[in-house]
Specification:
Chain A: It holds the Pfam family DNA_pol3_delta_C. Chain A: GO terms for molecular function: DNA binding; DNA-directed DNA polymerase activity. Chain A: Belongs to the DNA polymerase HolA subunit family. Chain A: It comes from Furfurilactobacillus siliginis. Chain A: InterPro entries: DNA_pol3_clamp-load_cplx_C (IPR008921), DNA_pol3_delta-like_C (IPR048466), DNA_pol3_delta_N (IPR010372), DNA_polIII_delta (IPR005790), P-loop_NTPase (IPR027417). The complex is a heterodimer of chains A (341) and B (599). With 341 residues, chain A is of the alpha/beta class. Chain A has three domains: 3-142, P-loop containing nucleotide triphosphate hydrolases (Rossmann fold, 3-Layer(aba) Sandwich); 148-210, Helicase, Ruva Protein, domain 3 (Orthogonal Bundle), CATH 1.10.8; 215-338, Zinc Finger, Delta Prime, domain 3. In chain A, 59% of the residues lie in helices and 9% in strands. Chain A is built from 17 helices and seven strands. Chain A has helices spanning 3-11, 26-39, 45-48, 59-67, 99-107, 129-137, 148-161, 170-178, 182-195, 204-210, 215-227, 231-243, 248-270, 275-282, 286-296, 301-320, 325-340, and strands at 18-22, 49-53, 76-81, 113-119, 139-142, 165-166, 201-202. In chain A, helix 11 runs antiparallel to helix 12 and helix 13 (248-270) runs antiparallel to helix 16. The radius of gyration of chain A is 25 Å and the shape is elongated. Chain B starts with 5 loop residues before the first helix and ends in a 10-residue tail after the last helix. Chain B has four domains: 6-174, P-loop containing nucleotide triphosphate hydrolases (Rossmann fold, 3-Layer(aba) Sandwich), CATH 3.40.50.300; 180-241, Helicase, Ruva Protein, domain 3 (Orthogonal Bundle), CATH 1.10.8; 248-358, Up-down Bundle (Zinc Finger, Delta Prime, domain 3); 444-590, 2-Layer Sandwich (GMP Synthetase, Chain A, domain 3). Chain B is 58% helix and 8% strand. Chain B is an alpha/beta fold and 599 residues long. In chain B, the strands form three sheets. Chain B has a five-stranded parallel beta sheet, with helices on one face. A three-stranded mixed beta sheet of chain B has the order 8-9-10, sandwiched between helices. In chain B, strands 6-7 form a two-stranded parallel sheet. Chain B is built from 30 helices and ten strands. The chains are: A alpha/beta (341), B alpha/beta (599).
Chain lengths: 341, 599
């Protein structure tokens, strides 16, 4: 079942005794949590809603709660958070979970209790009996990260529902700045709407001013500047990053890894690998590969490898000598631009 | 009243007084107007960009009973109490000194009580990145679901030190560095209010030195004011920002670059006499030389007073970058050595001598040193032009011989096609046929064709024919349709020659760059090689092939190992009616009765 269907069912109070919500998209997970909480009338919330963090509390406590009858209401809501025992992970906190009891409960759930398991994981350990059983018996809802297109659509429709519109190019900019991460986009949408409260149109200026750029994005700009041999922009960006308190080694490491990806993509793309295969082989996010494929087209392999080696050289210098990182970067930029010219 | 620093007197008290953050302040104002405030804010950005000011103004605006358009009135009791830091409901905490779990627990417990005077209780936690991990965790829960009418404003210069769990629970605003122009305007405004005279250039120097922090700008301005008895002059500004020695630096570098060791040593002595630290001097030198280098590549990158300096410009342009690179290397070595010596003067003197002996590497050396200004580049350019001229001359003498031959042989062998074949060669300009126009634009490029023909093998051609259909399948419909009338006629490892049955399609294909690229890319995908795709019209192909064979007869014959090559080329020709074998066969059996087959 997908999230929208679930929301609709919850709104009309059609509930099942057992739910497994799984996926890493935080925003959707929180939406689902809120929707569940709204099933229980507000005046009963104190008595009939229980939320248990499995990294802190033993499952037995939650089961005790689940097995009791609701107070003055139709349903009791029990939420299990972060059930790490369903995955292959081991937890350091050593909470003693009685999994047999949980198994037992899943086989015979209380009809008056809504038992919701919120698993913020990519997948469960399918060999475990409890995981198998849950997949079979519980209502499975996926909150996996949305693809770029779906995320766009989601944000767009949310904005429209609030009565706002994106100016031309605005959506693209937002997607780029947030790496198409739904949680980030939704968090920023609120601010953007506030700014555009007067004319209801979300423009690029607003996005530039309000949506923070993560280091990775800044570095992304830096990479583009380096590749375009735009000395001015590259040097300014580098300086800004240092002013923000970034470690030179860290910036350099991100640069190196980005160039490494570009090189890999460049080489592998000429061997005819598609975007999906590339992402799989390199173990990176498909969106990154997509962007890399776009930018790689403009550059020769020689340029890329030269830049890569130059950056490696900076790293060696940073570790071996006392030279000012900014100076090193400036020199690298100048030499790189000169060689190519 | 005692003197208060400028940045305290002129701390912004309204949103529209905050410089350079229009988008952020507008959003905050809108939030107050529409009463859609978040329960937690995170303000981050470099120092002196207005984070704390914005937080305080926000506290006032949201609590002020007379607020207009999201701005506080600054006159009511509450506003004044907040400005003075006396209102109990606005609590400003410096997380740098209250970073423990205990302090945060205290906040958490007190946050439960409703505000006493104001409508909202506001916690401003400055330098929030200094909190310990435990303290952050203690704050998390409160931040997620704070009691009604409580707002947290967290301010920090280092957002990356804040846990993601905190960030995701706040509305985050990134304050930007204030650009020099905005800082400049603000200073002009303040000085006009104070009725102090100033030199514009002085303010520019200050604005640049402040590096995007308004507070830094005002501090420097303050110093300059006290220096110059309520007057802002360029000289004083330079003095305060420490740029005064730059003149000396410039002289020194100039002398060193000009190899005037004696004068350089004297200049060095002067710098040291001024009480400059040796290490500091070397660092300044490095950054000065770096500026010189940068100026060559990106002139608008270099800020500060240098730019206005003509000596700086000429020096930067006159010297080859190579010299600067070498200088920086030498300077770096010395700056490392300086750490371990008790006699820095000696090292600096040696350094001066070393620097004075740096010459640009390679052949540019003579030019740069002897003629100075700008001539290095010029000489190189002149040399290049000379080289190109010579090449051109040798080409023009050689070319007619090469071109004449194919044209003549064509005229003899295939008279019918001669017009068109002439069009194919560079001599086409005088081709009489009306088609000529289209041909000249899309003529066959023999210089590209021949290398491929030379290396062409039967094997490659077969391989190409094998993948040809697959290749067509990879094309979009329109391109596929176009390529249907084409077939590969010769191939080598480096390229494939494709012939078109109709002129029209040939013209179309040649002018379609995208098509060629797609073909090459897809071929690469299918075969793993990167062949070049070249087009020829079918009616010209036999002639081109024949010309090639006659032109390269000796070469081909002499190359016994490569016996396959001519064979491959003539193989491809079997289809053509003017092949002697085929012609004979046609004579014997009649044209309709024979099927020509390649095997």
């Amino acid at each position: 079942m997908d999230v929208t269907t679930l929301m609709q069912q919850l709104k009309t109070q059609q509930v099942q005794p057992l739910y497994l919500i799984m996926g890493t998209e935080n925003y959707l997970l929180e939406q689902v949590r809120r929707a569940f909480k709204q099933v229980i009338p507000a005046e009963q919330a104190a008595m009939n809603v229980g939320s248990y963090d499995m990294e802190q509390t033993p499952v037995a406590v939650a089961l005790d709660d689940a097995m009791s009858i609701p107070f003055f209401g139709d349903h009791r809501l029990v939420i299990l958070d972060k059930p790490f025992f369903l995955t292959g992970e081991t937890n350091k906190n050593k909470v003693d979970h009685d999994l047999d009891a949980l198994l037992n409960y899943v086989q015979h759930p209380e009809p008056t209790t809504i038992f919701v398991i919120l698993a913020p994981y990519e997948k469960l350990d399918g060999r475990k009996k409890i995981a198998k059983l849950l997949k079979k018996d519980a209502v499975n809802v996926s909150v996996a990260p949305l693809a770029e297109r779906d995320a766009r659509q989601y944000v767009e429709s949310q904005a429209q529902a609030d009565g706002y519109q994106f100016a031309a190019g605005g959506m693209d900019l937002l997607v780029r700045r947030t790496n198409a991460d739904l949680s980030l986009m939704m968090a920023n949408l609120g601010k953007l709407e506030l700014f555009a409260v007067a004319d209801k149109i979300i423009g690029q200026d607003a996005i530039n001013g309000l949506v923070p750029q993560s280091l990775a994005d800044n570095v992304f700009d830096l990479v583009t500047a380096v590749l375009k041999r735009n000395v001015k922009q590259a040097v300014t960006l580098y300086h800004d990053l240092l002013v923000l308190g970034e470690e030179p080694l860290r910036i350099n490491a991100v640069l190196v890894s980005q160039f490494r990806l570009l090189l890999q993509v460049k080489i592998l793309a000429t061997r005819g690998l598609s975007q999906g295969t590339l992402a799989g082989q390199l173990h990176v996010h498909p969106y990154r590969v997509k962007l890399a494929l776009q930018s790689v087209r403009q550059f020769s392999q020689q340029d890329l490898s030269r830049a890569f080696l130059g950056l490696i050289n900076i790293e060696a210098q940073l570790k071996q000598t006392q030279q000012d990182p900014e100076l090193l970067f400036n020199l690298f930029m100048l030499q790189f631009t000169n060689q190519a010219a | 009243m005692s003197y208060q620093a400028l940045y305290r007197v002129w701390r912004p008290q309204r949103f529209d007084e905050i410089v350079g953050q229009a988008v952020i302040t507008q959003t905050l104002k809108n939030a107050i107007i529409t009463q859609q405030t978040s329960h937690a804010y995170l303000f981050c950005g470099p120092r002196g960009t207005g984070k704390t000011s914005a937080a305080k103004i926000f506290a006032k605006a949201i609590n002020c009973p007379n607020q207009v358009d999201g701005e506080p009135c600054n006159h009511c009791e509450i506003c004044e109490a907040i400005t003075a830091g006396q209102l109990n409901d606005v609590i400003e905490i410096d997380a740098a000194s209250n970073n423990g779990v205990e302090e945060i627990r205290d906040i958490r417990d007190k946050a439960k009580y409703v505000p006493t005077q104001a409508t909202y209780k506001i916690y401003i936690i400055d330098e929030v990145h200094m909190l310990s991990t435990g303290a952050f965790n203690a704050l998390l829960k409160t931040l997620e679901e704070p009691p009604a009418n409580v707002i947290f404003i967290l301010a920090t210069t280092e957002p990356h030190k804040i846990p993601a769990t905190i960030i995701s629970r706040t509305q985050r605003f990134d304050f930007k560095r204030i650009n020099a122009q905005e800082a400049f305007d603000r200073m002009v405004f303040i000085l006009n209010e104070k009725q102090v005279s100033f030199e514009e250039n002085a303010l520019r120097v200050i604005a640049n030195a402040a590096e995007g922090g308004m507070r830094d700008a005002l501090s420097i301005l303050d110093q300059t004011l006290s220096f110059g008895d309520n007057e802002v002059t360029l000289a004083n500004a330079l003095l305060v920002t420490g740029s005064v020695t730059e003149g000396l630096l410039a002289d020194y570098v100039k002398q060193v670059v000009d190899h005037e060791t004696t004068v350089g040593l004297a200049a060095l002595q002067k710098v040291l006499d001024d009480g400059k630290d040796a290490g500091r001097f070397v660092e300044d030198l490095i950054s000065y030389v770096r500026d010189l280098l940068l100026y060559q590549e990106a002139p608008d990158m270099v800020t500060g007073s240098d730019v206005t300096n003509d000596a700086f410009k000429t020096l930067s342009q006159a010297t080859s970058p190579d010299v600067f690179y070498q200088m920086i290397n030498t300077l770096n070595e010395v700056s490392a050595q300086l750490r371990f010596t008790t006699h820095p003067d000696v090292y600096l003197e040696v350094l001066t001598v070393k620097l004075a002996q740096i010459y640009p590497s390679q052949e540019q050396a003579g030019a740069t040193t002897s003629t100075g200004t700008g001539s290095a580049d010029l000489t190189v350019l002149q040399q290049q032009i000379q080289g190109l001229k010579e090449q051109l001359a040798s080409l023009t003498t050689a070319a007619p011989v090469v071109q004449a031959q194919p044209a003549r042989s064509a005229a003899v062998s295939v008279p019918a096609a001669s017009a068109e074949s002439q069009a194919a060669t560079p001599k086409a300009a005088k081709a009489p046929v009306q088609k000529a126009a289209s041909h000249t634009s899309n003529s066959v490029n023999l210089s590209k064709l021949y290398p491929i023909l030379r290396a062409a093998t039967k094997h490659d051609l077969d391989a190409m024919r094998e993948v040809w259909n697959d290749l067509l399948d990879t094309l979009p419909i329109t391109q596929k349709a176009l390529m249907k009338v084409a077939k590969p006629v010769a191939a080598s490892g480096a390229g494939v020659i494709v012939s078109f049955s109709y002129e029209f399609f040939f013209d179309k294909a040649v002018s379609d760059d995208e098509l060629r690229q797609t073909l090459e890319q897809n071929l690469n995908r299918l075969t793993g090689e990167t062949p070049v795709v070249l087009f020829v019209p079918e009616d010209q192909w036999p002639k081109i092939r024949k010309d090639f064979l006659t032109d390269h007869k000796d070469e081909l014959a002499g190359n016994a190992d490569n016996a396959e090559t001519p064979a491959a080329v003539s193989e491809t020709a079997i289809n053509e009616p003017d092949n002697p074998v085929v012609t004979k066969a046609q004579e014997l059996f009649g044209a309709d009765n024979i099927t020509i087959q390649n095997d």
